[in-house]
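Risk register update: the risk of archive-format incompatibility is retired. Evidence:
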Amino acid sequence: VRVALDDGSIVGFESNGYLMNHAERELGTPALDEASAKACVSENLDVSCSGLALIPKDSLEEVLCYEFKGNFKGKNFIIYINADNGREENILLLLESENGILTI
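Archived output:
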């Protein structure tokens, strides 16, 4: 919500995040198990945890993936592997500071 500073009136509203995250979904059973998905991740990544995740795509669709968090050369990453076909959907670099965590 954007509010005008001079009179307090509402001048804008953005609800894409809310609408995307508050929708009924029917998730199918993944074609790959977690071990098969992990085999698609580089052996150089020291995986610390993993699990299923539903991630958004630029097309406003969602993809069921296995999420692998890990470390490579002192940097933390999250790798998303498509749970149906084993394709790498996304890689995020985690930049951590005293102000929080930024993903790029």
